[in-house]
Design brief:
Structural class: alpha+beta
Order of helices and strands: HEEEHEH
Number of strands: 4
Strand content: 15-25%
Strand order of the largest sheet: 1-2-4-3
């Protein structure tokens, strides 16, 4: 690890793990739609809590391989953007059938667009 590179991790505290947290984001969060993606962003109880990510992919998108690939892509986009995201938010990403053929750059473009519109992505993220 002494190569001087900064590493970012997708830790447990950055994951939405309980159904009630998903439901709370759906009910109380702001909703944003992009091609193939529906994102809900909800403030957490405290702005000091880490921002966390939850992902759902409907079966209409495709088989498990396709759904899991989209989840991996979303986690990677989130992991790389985490230092530039404001703390204290719950982000739920729902992929629909139009996301089936999305590549990393497509997912990144859609999610960064939503996060900028919501005002939780700092400008120096590149």
């Amino acid at each position: 690890m002494g190569d001087g590179k900064i590493r970012f991790f997708f830790r447990k505290e950055n994951r939405v793990r309980k159904r009630r947290d998903y439901l709370q984001a759906y009910e109380q969060g702001a909703s944003y739609r992009r091609r193939g993606v529906h994102v809900f962003i909800c403030p957490r109880e405290s702005c000091e809590l880490p921002t966390r990510l939850g992902i759902t992919v409907t079966r209409k998108v495709g088989r498990a391989v396709v759904r899991n690939r989209l989840k991996r892509l979303a986690r990677e986009v989130f992991r790389l953007a985490l230092p530039f995201l404001e703390p204290g938010y719950t982000i739920i990403v729902n992929f629909g059938p139009a996301a089936r053929d999305m590549k990393f750059r497509d997912v990144q473009k859609q999610l960064h667009s939503v996060w900028k519109q919501a005002g939780i992505l700092k400008d120096d993220s590149g």
